[in-house]
Amino acid sequence: MEHRALVTVDPWIHLKAYTRARIALGRVGCSLPTHEMLQFGYAHAKARDAVHAALDVEGLCAQLQAAGFEALPVRSAARDRASFLLRPDLGRRLDAECVKRLRQSTRKGYDVLPIVADGLSSVAVREHALPVLAALRAAFAARWSLGPVVVATQARVALSDHVGELLQARLVVMLIGERPGLSSPDSLGIYITYEPRVGRHDAERNCISNIRPEGMDYDAAARKAGWLVEHALRLGLSGIALKDDADLGQVGAPQRPRSNGEE
User: Fold this and answer.
1) pLDDT band at residue 261, thresholds of 50, 70 and 90?
2) What are phi and psi of 62, to 5 degrees?
3) What CATH number does the domain containing 75 carry?
4) Total domain count for the chain?
5) Is 165 helix (H, G, I), strand (E, B) or coil?
6) Are residues 161 and 210 in the same domain?
7) Are residue 78 and residue 149 in the same domain, yes or no?
8) Listed residue (149, 75, 138, 76) closest to 112, CA to CA
9) pLDDT tens per residue, range 121-173
10) Are 94 and 25 contained in the same domain?
């Protein structure tokens, strides 16, 4: 490791107190200090592990049931992690056996269907899904009927459309592991889609991102999700048509966009 006197300190070093981003790393000649190189390698390894680690579905379902949730495991058409990463399209639709099982289900037509999906970080789901669901239940349960928690593996965001359509949900709330960053391998996202059906696109969803203790906390995420769900169900829309004014303290509801010919 370099002697401390060899390291040229970056003049912006005081800004490191305000962010976990890799800034003001200093230098040794034309290279980075050894400590920073080692930290970078460690962060990169954690991000890779978050992507490739398998979600413990059985353990998560047991935790959900112990917390008073009904758990319903499903899987996408991607048979393993390699096909999930190489074929994003397979992660957007359900396995044929799961399709058959959901079609035969007699429990359908919920206002809000919660879905937990591994996505690109099973670590995020393992660490944060249960407390976020508990906060969402506290915000949702008194106002809307909640379906079972669907636990989806090898899943992309659009899988929520397939699941929600089969279970005839008015709206789906998907908790999914986000793409890991070098300072955030455990970031959880929430995607909200009104009237889910196969063929929906990302502009028809609302997203709440970076849910973790170092980012947006669980209660704040639940409050924002509650605002979006309330207005989505009342106005019959989600995505870019539903402007997120939750942080502005506005009490007025957003207006439904006019269609052609409306005055």
Assistant:
1) very low
2) -65, -40
3) 3.40.50.11240
4) 2
5) helix
6) yes
7) yes
8) 149
9) 999 999 999 999 999 999 888 889 999 999 999 999 999 999 999 999 999 99
10) no
Q: Enumerate the β-bridge partners of residue 73.
A: 151
- pTM (2 d.p.): 0.86
**Token digits of residue 169:** 């949900």
User: Mean pLDDT, to the nearest integer, of 197-221?
Assistant: 95
**pLDDT over threshold 50, residue 253:** no
| 200-208 CB contacts, 8 Å cutoff, 24+ apart | 200/158, 200/161, 202/157, 202/239, 203/239, 203/240, 204/238, 204/239, 204/240, 205/157, 205/238, 205/239, 206/232, 206/238, 206/239, 206/242, 206/244
Q: Is 238 exposed, middle or buried (0-12, 13-18, 19+ CB in 10 A)?
A: buried
Query: What's the chain's Rg over C-alpha atoms?
Result: 21
Question: Nearest Cα to 161, choosing from 84, 238, 221?
Answer: 238
Tokens of 48: 């890779």
- Residues 13-72: tens digit of each pLDDT: 888 888 878 888 888 888 888 888 898 899 899 999 999 999 999 999 999 999 999 999
Residue type, 41: G
Residues in the chain: 263
DSSP per residue over 194-251, as a string? Answer: ES--TT--GGGEEEEEEESTTSB-HHHHHHHHHHHHHHHHHHT--GGGS---GGGT--
Q: CA geometry: angle at 179 spanning 209 and 158, to 5°?
A: 75
Q: Do 9 and 131 belong to one domain?
A: no
Residue with the two structure tokens 């074929």: 87
Domain check: are 182 and 125 in the same one? yes
- Hey, what amino acid is at 234? R
